[in-house]
Design a protein that fits this description.
Number of helices: 11
Order of helices and strands: EEEHEHEHEHHHHHEHEHH
Largest sheet: 8 strands, mixed
GO molecular function: hydrolase activity
Strand content: 15-25%
Helix content: 25-40%
Structural class: alpha/beta
Radius of gyration: 17 Å
Organism: Streptomyces anatolicus
Strand order of the largest sheet: 1-2-4-3-5-6-7-8
Number of strands: 8
Protein name: Alpha/beta fold hydrolase
Keywords: Hydrolase
Shape: globular
Length: about 270
């Protein structure tokens, strides 16, 4: 397993699969590279995919230091690209991974080809925050109830019922890295909550596609048009009926659109149907 080392001495685990142009896939808050297991092969059929464990997750180091931030995570990605010998890559980030991708494209434009921002936000104070009822559901004292609430924020009830029928007890890789220490979870939460890339978004020059599920209340869908309006020439694709984990449940629709966008040339393509 390859490991890159950051400027502050943190070892970051990453993996490469597939062939073709490089594509970095960035996972959400408190999640490791398994976030992408459901669709990674679809991308690896056309791209050399790079997934990594953010600091604090997976096989990467878990420093208990004040070094967790979305711009800092973006610098971590640059360290991984350097170690892998990749000068420039397309980038697809979802949830907090999309927040990281914003900084990567704004602060390191020479490293980013095409950019896809999924189910993400520009951050406070300009973004649309989740409602108090969502926060209350996630902070329930009963861990089983809180887990169920998170599942229902990620996926539609019908799809969950079908998964429970076909694959009872299946593992979901979007609910957080179970091996993360509590301090790392807190630091990830704080890093995501402090994200504010509003001013930086205007500097993004990469052709950009913003993707969001229309029924996402975990990271409200109203953030998609905000991002698209702020990033020059960005386009939006909304996935009807999808919640936060649109990229898994609605992979048949979303992955095809992302692949079409990544395979384009020149400026950002018109809105995809």
């Amino acid at each position: 397993m390859p490991f890159a080392e950051t400027a502050d001495g943190v070892a970051l685990h990453y993996q490469l699969h597939g062939s073709g142009e490089p594509l970095v896939l960035l996972a959400g808050q408190s999640n490791n590279h398994h976030w992408w297991d459901c669709v990674r092969d679809d991308f690896a059929a056309r791209f050399t995919t790079l997934v990594l464990d953010h600091r604090g997750t997976g096989e990467s180091d878990r420093p208990d230091t004040d070094t967790y931030s979305t711009p800092g995570f973006a610098r971590d990605v640059v360290a991984v690209l350097d170690h892998a010998g990749i000068d420039r890559a397309h980038v697809y980030g979802t949830s907090m991974g999309g927040r990281i991708a914003q900084w990567l494209a704004a602060d390191h434009p020479e490293r980013v080809g095409r950019l896809v921002l999924g189910c993400t936000s520009p951050g406070a104070p300009h973004g649309v925050e989740r409602g108090p009822e969502v926060r209350a559901a996630l902070s329930q004292a009963d861990p089983d109830a809180a887990r169920r609430a998170l599942l229902e924020l990620m996926y539609t009830p019908g799809w969950l019922a079908e998964q429970e029928r076909l694959r009872p007890g299946r593992e979901f890789h979007t609910l957080g890295d179970p091996a993360m220490p509590a301090y790392a979870r807190r630091r990830h939460l704080r890093a995501s909550a402090r994200h504010d890339a509003w001013e930086a978004l205007a500097r993004i020059g990469a052709p950009t596609l913003v993707v969001h599920g229309t029924d996402d209340v975990f990271n409200p869908a109203a953030n998609a048009p905000l991002l698209a309006a702020r990033i020059p020439d960005a386009r939006t694709f909304l996935v009807p009926g999808a919640r936060h984990a649109y990229f898994e449940e609605f992979a048949g629709v979303a992955t095809a659109q992302v692949l079409a966008f990544l395979g384009g040339s020149g400026p950002a393509q018109p809105p995809l149907p």
